[in-house]
Every structure is written in structure tokens, then in C-alpha cells.
Specification:
The structure holds 2 protein chains of 2 kinds.
Chain A lengths: L1 E8 L3 H8 L2 H7 L3 E8 L2 E10 L2 E15 L3 E9 L5 E13 L2 E13 L1 H34 L1
Antiparallel strand pairs in A: 1-7, 2-3, 3-4, 4-5, 5-6, 6-7
Helix pairs in contact in A: 2-3
Chain B lengths: L1 H13 L11 H4 L16 E7 L5 E7 L1 H4 L4 E5 L1 H4 L6 E3 L5 E3 L5 E2 L5 E7 L2 H10 L1 E6 L6 H4 L26 E8 L1 H9 L3 E12 L8 E7 L4 E6 L4 H12 L6 E4 L15 H13 L3 E4 L2 H7 L2 E13 L5 E13 L26 E10 L5 E3 L7 H19 L3 H8 L8 E2 L5 E2 L4 H11 L2 H16 L5 E11 L11 E2 L2 E2 L2 E7 L5 E5 L8 H13 L6 E5 L16 H28 L6 E4 L2 E4 L2 E7 H10 L10 E6 L8 E11 L5 E11 L6 H20 L31 E4 L17 H17 L14 H10 L5
Parallel strand pairs in B: 1-14, 12-13, 15-18, 16-17, 25-26, 32-33
Antiparallel strand pairs in B: 1-7, 2-6, 2-8, 3-7, 4-5, 9-17, 10-15, 11-12, 11-14, 15-16, 19-20, 21-31, 22-23, 24-25, 24-30, 27-28, 28-29, 31-32
Helix pairs in contact in B: 11-19, 15-16, 16-17, 18-19
Classes of the chains: A alpha+beta, B alpha+beta.
């Protein structure tokens, strides 16, 4: 599965970059996120409940950030294990460009999914992933914008 | 005249051979009174369910069952570590390999059984499965058999490097066997010297029998009496009993295996699966009956698949089209374990029937079996062992040769058919074809569809298409197939050492009705109807007065079961032979009652008459009564017989199928306009049942050719694990069929019958596929792989430049 999108966030680039590394913001923005903690310099562990079509599962996963050229560009990779429901692993390259009144965030993500998730949800995965990403960025943008104006 | 009418009436009253007697089993099936495995309910019964691997290839780092054991209702969780002390964490396969019962250190295919959760009901079991925590470390996945043979990745770490397998040397760590038949040098020479050679790779994709009822069992260990009863969806209940005894150490007389009504098998229910072993162990451990029934996803992704043969062929001929040689090399993808259900000496089944209906002087076949990260299996899905692969291969090669020669494919077949006077015919690959008359069948078929008229219409259609007046093409799919069924002679056919005979035991009751028990088991074929008909004609009692019983190993005589169209050729023969034993004894009794010498009575439909005085007779009913109530000098009381039949040869049913298909070039949609199926299965026992078998088999063939497949992505996910993605035709997709027949009896079978259940799958798949190919022949198509779903047909049209 591949996902390539961009989204405008009405906040300065530095702020956006920092927020992307802020467990509080991430926990509040990730749909279905139950737990999220920073386990190392650039490492996070999370528990997220996801529903894709008929498969609902609690995924335990880790994400590692690779700050290649902060705050313009970084990449990340991660994996999640949903037990009997299956597993997912993937990565993304994220670029942040300054624009009038905010930041343009572009990402290019790839993911491999396996198990029941892939079998039952294969038709739905792309659409669901798109929807979840949109949801994430909508609440992420809200958060960041609020904090910036505050 | 009166005598004749009288005899006709008496014959008709028996409803014996040739009668379209209605199926006796349908009274219960159509009223919801069938008794399938999931209907078996015992007091205190527990339910088992598997934790399955989401990975296609991974090392297991840990299995944590603690949380699962805390789920309300969960009674036990079994892992390989629990089975190991019993030596049951691995089990032997029918193909001489071994298979993990529960994952031992690593998993090798998606859906592999990792742990077995036993609970008070299905829901608790499912919750328990969710709670088992397994930590995996994923390994490189191989789903391509060609890459597998070149990969450094060792799939089967349990096998000793460099050691021979069950079928000889293994040349690579992912190689299983090379099996060869025929004269390689003579074939190579004939191909080298040939005027015309056509070469092609023909792929028969992986699919699955997908019976409506999935696999399942109920194991019940009675610890007080030491008896294990095992109900299950078994196509071979007696073999299951023997295997269960050998594996468990429980003496065979203490194991009773019962196959109740079975909702379709098609080869899927021949093998032994981890679910059976785990249920037995769980019942022994808990002292309670344990039921295990697969869901649809379990069935499609883990129990035995079919096909997955990459067949590279070379066919050589003269310029006039006389075939001189056939060479075939198969790369056979067997998945993670070699669990093919074939007779032991035939690791590629009867694939070497691939010279088909043609007189080919030189031929060679080599089959390489290969391990990959896919489910194990390789069963005969509604065909005899690997015969549908063989038929598809030769019928595609004939079409490709016709293209190469610029010849009509019907004529090319005709000039290469084995001639009627050549039977019994020994093929270049060693089979002795028992009987056949291919020319008569072929001519009848071509005439029935007005073949020449169809070809004219097709040519006009191509012209109209080129002028832009239509976007639909017409395909004419031809097939003349030869099946090889009725395995088989004990001298070369066995399964796990058990000779492939079959059996029938008959008891005639005093009042002239009877029960016959057989070693086979119906899964929808209608044995209770047709075997009673065989017996009715043999012993002269009405079929309606004969009960047929199968599937209970405590009562039925030992037999190898039902698959590979073997029931009629083998158990049907045993039935006729047991009937003849009854008649021989009855003749002595009748002669005594009629006060004449044994030789002075003769059999007449349902009675013995005194030669030359037909008014003096004793019916079989009279004889039966006398056998139980009257002392007859020199003859034991009672009227019973048993026959174990070891067939002298296989039988070779054949047929001519023609499919006329309309194809929409822009959408890839297809419509079967006409399907004509002529079957020659020798003596016809019940024409209505035959027609039903043909219709069902053709519909499964349609499914396979036109859409059904088990597809994997590159990390080994099963992409077609539900009926949403796995094509199972409904009445909506099923076309009308016209069935027809010729009747060439088998010379070695007691009643001349050959078996028919699987012919329509063997012949149907190439007929549908050839129709698709034929539609595009004028535009240069040689080969496109099945299944021909709309997308693939669209792509074919696109690649040929037909979308402008």
C-alpha cells in the first residue's frame, strides 16, 4: 500500500516539527490511540485500536523517527502487531515546506500489512488508511493551530 | 411377446442399471434432515479453535498462553511443546513427508496452526484465540517455486541437508523430488528431428475445492471403555482409523471412525489435518468430547489446495499434423509440506496420462516438486490424481500446435486420436487404456453443435469486428479428454501402504430386502441410490428394498474411500461381485427348492427358472426366505456375501466437450452461449445422476477456468481467503449445459462402468479456457493464464491492441 498526500497546517514550520515529536499532541491526534509514550530519543511506543472493515484489533507498535534535515525533512518507520488480526509495518518520508501563513506537510508512505487484516480488509485498507490519515492531520492541525494562537 | 412384456415389467420394477431412479438421499437433504458434522452434539462437548500465523514465514520467539487461560470458558491451550512428549507435534503426510501439527519453532505459511484453544463453546474459544500472544520474527518469504529453487533461504530446516526425500534425491534444500516417466532420449530425438515443434508454458493456477461444508471433526475418548470415537468429514474413514491408530498407539479395534453426511469433498477431505490430531489429544486430555469445525477462511487458507502446476511443454509433429512426440517439464508448487494425496508410488499422481486421447509414439514427463511459503496440499480437486492438470496441458498444447500448423484444431485432434482397433492401447508413458471410441464421440459432438457453421459464424464475426461493427468476439472451445480413474490395482496403488482395493458386504434379509455396506463414503454423489441399483440388477431385488450404508468403520468393510472417481470402478465392482456370490448360493437353494440339479436352473431378472420350463421358478425373494427357514442339505443357512475387489486395471472414461463463448473485448465479460458435453463413462447406472454429476462438475470447471484461485501477494498473504474474493459460481453465473453420451463399456469391470463424477471437471476446464483463447486466436493469442476473469481477459485484449 502506498499513500502520498499533502496537507496545509496553519502554524510555523518549527512548531509543526516540534509537535510531531510531542507525545501529548500525537496521543491526542492519532485516531484510536490509547497509549503513546516516548521510549527513547526518537522512539515511540503506542497502543492503538483500529477497525478496518470487519476486523477490529488492538495494535501494539513502535515508531522510530529519523531526523535527516530537521525541520524540513525527516523519515520514520515502524511496525505494529495486532495479534490474531495481523500485523503492519512501513515507513514514510515527511517534508515540511514554509508557506504563507503556515506549513505545507507532504508525506510519502508505504506499508505492508499481513494476516486477517490483509485478507479481509484488503479492499478497505487503502481507503481506511486515507481516512485515518486525514483524521489525524485534521486534529493535529487543530491542536497546533490552537496552541500557536494561544 | 407376453413373456417379453413380463420380463420388461419385472426389470423395470427393480429400478436397476440404466434407471433414472430418484435419489433416495434427497428426501432428507431437501427437508433439512441431513446429519453433518456440525450437527453432531454430545453432552459436555468442548470446542477447539486455532491460533493461526499471520506470517507466511517467521520464527516463533515465544508463545504466551497465560492471558488466554484466564478467558472465561477456556479449558486448555495446546502448543507444540504440549504435543512433543506424545510425539504428535509433527505428523506424517500421505506423500511421505511430515507436517507440523502445531508450529514447532517456525511457521511456513500464512494460516498455519500455532496453538489450539479448547473452550466450553465456540465463542469462548474464539476469545481465547485472540488472547494468545505470539511473538514472531519474520523471515524472507518465498511464494514463487522457481525462485525457491534458487534461493539461499532454507524453508524446511527440519530436513537434513543433502539427504534423500521420500521420492529420491533432492537437489536443493527447497526441492522435494524429481519424478520422471517415459523415454527422455527418444523424445528429445523425435523433437529434434520434427518438422514442426510448438513450445509453451502452460500454468494451471492454485485453487481450492472449497466444499460448502468445511472440514471438521468431533473426537470423543471414552476413558472407561478405552474407546475413541471420531466423527469427521472424512472421504476415507477407514484410512483415518488406521492412521489414528498408528499415530496414537490406540489399538485399531478401539477406534471407531464415522463419516456422517458430508457436504461435498472434492478432494479437500482426503487428507489428515492438524485439527483432527489436536481434537483427539484434547479429548484424551480433558476426558470430554471435543469438536473442531473450520470457518471458511480457515478452509481456504490452510486445508488442502489443488493444482499449482507450471507445465513447460514441447509438442512435435509432421507438417500434416501427425504428432510425433511430447515433452513436459512441470514445476510443481507443493507449499510448505508435501501433503499431496496421491498413491504412494506416484508423487505427481497420474499426471503421465498427459498424452491424452492421442496416439503419441514418444513422450517424456519430468515433475519437480518444490517447497514454498504456501499452504500444503495438492489434492485431486474433483479429478483423479493430477489428471485435470494433464488434460489441461495436452488440450492447450494441441490448440497451440494447431496455431503453429495453421490447422483446424478439431481436425488436428481427429487425425491423432487413438483408433478404436488400437484398444487396449498402451501409451508411451506406460498406461494401458482399457477401451474407447474417440472418433464416434468426436463426430457426434461436432455434428451436434454444427461445428462448421460455428466456424463460419466466427470468421464473419472477426470480419465484423475488424470493420468496427461489433465489440464482441466468439470463441469455440474444444476438448477431447481421457480420464484415468478407479485407483487402483493393489500391485502399484497404495495409500500409506494400504492397497487401493474396495469392498462391499451384503446381507439379504429373510423377507427379501437387503442391506449393503461399502468401504467408500458418499459426499453428495448419491451412492445410496446408485449402488442399490447395481445390486438390484445383480440379485433381482428392487433397489427400493436395499439400504446402502457407508462411513462407519465398526460396521462397514475396510475400503480406501471415495475420491478420484474410484467408487463406481472399485466399490461398484465389489458390489457387483458380492451380488454374484449371493446369486451363486441362491442358485443352489433355488435348484433344491425346484427339485432339479443346480445346472438346470437359469437366472431371469429376479428369479431362477427351470431351463425349458419358465413357469417353474423361484424368485430371489422366495430363495431369501428359504435360506433362513429351511434346512438345505450342503448349504449353510443365511444369505450374505462380502467382496474385496482389487481392480485389474484403471478405467479410462472419456468425453468430447464444446463450449461456445461470447467475449466483450472492452469489458472482458464473457457469456457461455452453448455448452455441449458428451461423456462416455461406459455402462450407465443412473442417467439422471450422471447428468447431475456432469452439471455440477462443469460448474466447478467454470469456476476454476473463469475466476477461482488461491492468490498470494509477495509477503505470502492469501488474497482470496473469503467468498468475497474466491469465485464460487451461483445460478447467476451458471450457464445451461447440454449433456450427451456414447457408451463404451470397460472390458475389465464387472458391469462395464467407468466412473463419471470427475470427467466434467477434467474436460470442462480446458473447454472453457480454450474458448477464451480461441476467441482471440485470429488476433495472435497463443497462451494466457487462467483464471480468465474479466480483468485478465481485458488485459489480454489490451495487450493484443484491440482497444484501439
Amino acid at each position: 500500500m502506498e499513500l502520498k498526500e499533502d496537507v496545509f497546517i496553519p502554524a510555523p514550520r518549527e512548531r509543526v516539527y516540534d509537535a510531531l515529536n510531542d507525545p501529548e499532541v500525537l496521543r491526542a491526534s492519532i485516531p484510536g490511540c490509547e497509549e503513546l509514550e516516548k521510549t527513547g530519543e526518537n522512539e515511540f511506543a503506542a497502543k492503538v485500536t483500529l477497525k478496518i472493515g470487519p476486523v477490529k484489533a488492538r495494535f501494539a507498535g513502535t515508531v522510530t523517527l529519523h531526523p535527516e534535515a530537521p525541520p524540513e525533512k525527516f523519515s520514520l518507520d515502524g511496525q505494529g502487531n495486532g495479534g490474531a488480526a495481523g500485523f503492519a509495518k512501513g515507513g514514510a518520508v515527511v517534508t515540511l515546506d514554509e508557506e504563507d501563513g503556515g506549513t505545507r506537510l507532504s508525506y510519502d508512505a508505504r506499508a505492508e500489512i499481513g494476516g486477517k487484516l490483509a485478507q479481509l480488509g484488503s479492499r478497505l485498507v487503502q481507503g481506511t488508511a486515507k481516512k485515518l490519515a486525514a483524521k489525524f492531520f485534521a486534529s493535529f492541525a487543530d491542536h497546533v493551530a490552537q496552541e500557536t494562537s494561544a | 411377446m407376453k413373456d417379453f412384456e413380463d420380463r420388461e415389467q419385472r426389470t423395470a420394477a427393480l429400478k436397476g442399471l440404466g434407471c433414472s431412479r430418484k435419489r433416495v438421499e434427497d428426501a432428507r437433504f431437501t427437508q433439512g434432515k441431513g446429519n453433518y458434522i456440525d450437527d453432531v452434539t454430545l453432552p459436555g462437548m468442548l470446542f477447539g479453535d486455532f491460533v493461526r500465523s499471520p506470517h507466511a514465514h517467521a520464527r516463533i520467539k515465544s508463545i504466551d498462553t497465560e492471558a488466554a487461560m484466564k478467558v472465561p470458558g477456556v479449558v486448555a491451550v495446546l502448543t507444540a511443546a504440549d504435543l512433543e512428549p506424545l510425539g504428535l507435534h509433527w505428523m506424517p503426510t500421505l506423500a511421505g513427508d511430515k507436517q507440523m501439527v502445531l508450529a514447532d519453532g517456525k511457521v511456513l505459511f500464512q494460516g498455519q496452526e500455532v496453538a489450539y484453544v479448547v473452550a466450553e463453546d465456540r465463542y469462548a474459544a474464539a476469545d481465547g484465540v485472540e488472547a494468545v500472544e505470539v511473538e514472531y520474527e519474520d523471515l524472507e518469504v518465498i511464494t514463487d517455486p522457481f525462485k525457491s529453487l534458487e534461493s539461499d533461504v532454507v524453508l524446511r530446516e527440519d530436513l537434513e541437508a543433502g539427504a534423500d526425500g521420500a521420492h529420491g534425491p533432492r537437489r536443493h534444500h527447497n526441492h522435494i523430488f524429481l519424478w520422471e516417466e517415459g523415454d527422455k532420449d527418444a523424445t528429445a530425438q523425435a523433437i529434434g528431428e520434427a518438422e514442426v515443434v510448438a513450445e509453451e508454458m502452460v500454468y494451471y493456477h492454485r485453487t481450492h475445492p472449497c466444499p460448502l461444508e468445511t472440514c471438521g471433526c468431533v473426537a470423543s475418548m471414552d476413558k472407561i471403555n478405552g474407546k475413541l470415537t471420531l466423527w469427521g468429514t472424512f472421504q476415507a474413514p477407514h484410512v483415518v482409523r488406521t492412521v489414528a491408530s498408528l499415530l496414537s498407539g490406540i489399538e485399531e479395534h478401539n477406534i471407531r471412525v464415522i463419516s456422517p453426511d458430508i457436504g461435498g469433498g472434492f478432494g479437500n477431505k482426503v487428507g489428515v489435518y492438524p485439527g483432527y490430531i489436536c481434537s483427539i489429544v484434547a479429548s484424551i486430555v480433558t476426558g470430554k468430547p471435543v469438536k473442531w469445525v473450520e470457518d471458511r477462511m480457515d478452509n481456504l487458507m490452510s486445508t488442502a489446495f489443488a493444482r499449482d502446476y507450471w507445465m513447460k511443454g514441447k509438442i512435435a509433429a509432421t507438417k500434416e499434423g501427425k504428432i510425433t512426440a511430447l515433452d513436459c517439464h512441470v514445476t510443481a508448487d507443493h507449499g510448505a509440506f508435501d501433503a499431496c494425496a496421491d498413491p504412494t508410488k506416484f508423487p505427481a499422481g497420474f499426471f503421465h496420462i498427459c498424452t491424452g486421447s492421442y496416439d503419441i509414439p514418444a513422450a517424456y514427463v519430468g515433475v519437480d516438486g518444490v517447497y514454498t511459503n504456501k499452504a500444503p496440499g495438492g489434492v485431486a480437486y474433483r479429478c483423479s490424481f493430477r489428471v485435470t492438470e494433464a488434460a489441461y496441458f495436452i488440450e492447450r498444447m494441441i490448440e497451440i500446435l494447431a496455431i503453429e500448423l495453421g490447422m483446424d484444431a478439431a481436425e488436428l485432434r481427429r487425425i491423432n486420436f487413438i483408433k478404436p482397433e488400437q484398444f487396449p492401447y498402451t501409451s508411451a508413458l506406460g498406461w494401458e487404456y482399457d477401451s474407447g471410441d474417440y472418433h464416434t464421440a468426436w463426430d457426434k459432438a461436432l455434428k451436434a453443435v454444427d461445428y462448421d457453421g460455428l466456424r463460419r459464424e466466427q470468421a464473419e464475426r472477426v470480419e465484423a469486428f475488424r470493420r468496427g461493427e461489433t465489440r464482441k468476439l466468439l470463441g469455440i472451445g474444444l476438448t477431447h479428454f481421457t480420464e484415468i480413474v478407479g485407483a487402483g490395482p493393489v500391485k502399484n496403488c497404495d495409500i500409506l501402504g494400504m492397497g487401493m482395493f474396495d469392498s462391499c458386504e451384503i446381507r439379504i434379509h429373510p423377507t427379501g430386502s437387503a442391506i449393503a455396506r461399502l468401504g467408500t463414503i458418499s459426499q453428495g454423489q448419491g451412492h445410496a441410490t446408485t449402488f442399490a441399483q447395481i445390486l438390484a440388477s445383480e440379485v433381482g431385488l428392487p433397489a427400493d428394498s436395499i439400504t446402502i450404508e457407508e462411513g462407519d468403520t465398526d460396521t462397514a468393510p475396510y475400503g480406501l474411500g471415495t475420491y478420484g472417481s474410484r467408487s463406481t470402478p472399485v466399490a461398484g465392482a465389489a458390489t457387483a461381485m458380492a451380488g454374484r456370490k449371493i446369486r451363486a448360493k441362491a442358485q443352489m437353494i433355488a435348484a433344491y427348492l425346484l427339485e432339479v440339479h443346480d445346472d438346470d436352473v437359469e437366472w431371469d431378472v429376479d428369479r431362477f427358472v427351470v431351463k425349458g420350463a419358465p413357469e417353474r421358478f423361484k424368485t430371489m425373494k422366495d430363495v431369501a426366505y428359504a435360506a433362513y427357514n429351511q434346512p438345505i442339505p450342503g448349504v449353510e443357512p443365511g444369505l450374505e456375501a462380502v467382496s474385496y475387489y482389487d481392480p485389474p486395471n484403471m478405467t479410462y472414461p472419456f468425453g468430447a466437450y464444446i463450449c461456445v463463448m461470447e467475449i466483450d473485448v472492452d469489458t472482458g465479460e464473457w457469456e457461455v452461449r452453448q455448452f455441449y458435453a458428451l461423456d462416455d463413462c461406459g455402462t450407465r447406472i443412473n442417467p439422471m445422476v450422471i447428468e447431475g454429476q456432469v452439471h455440477g462438475g462443469l460448474t466447478e470447471a467454470l469456476a476454476i477456468a473463469m475466476g477461482q484461485e488461491i492468490a498470494y501477494d509477495k509477503i505470502g498473504n492469501v488474497k482470496t481467503g473469503t467468498l468475497m474474493d474466491f469465485f464460487l459460481p451461483t445460478t447467476w453465473e451458471t450457464p445451461n449445459y447440454t449433456s450427451d453420451y456414447t457408451e463404451t463399456p470397460s472390458p475389465h469391470h464387472p458391469i462395464g462402468a467407468k466412473g463419471v463424477g470427475e470427467s466434467p471437471n477434467v474436460g470442462g476446464v480446458p473447454a472453457f479456457s480454450n474458448a477464451v483463447h480461441d476467441a482471440f486466436r485470429a488476433f495472435g493469442l497463443r497462451q494466457s493464464h487462467m483464471p480468465h476473469d474479466h480483468w485478465r481477459i481485458w488485459k489480454t485484449a489490451n495487450n493484443l491492441g484491440l482497444h484501439g
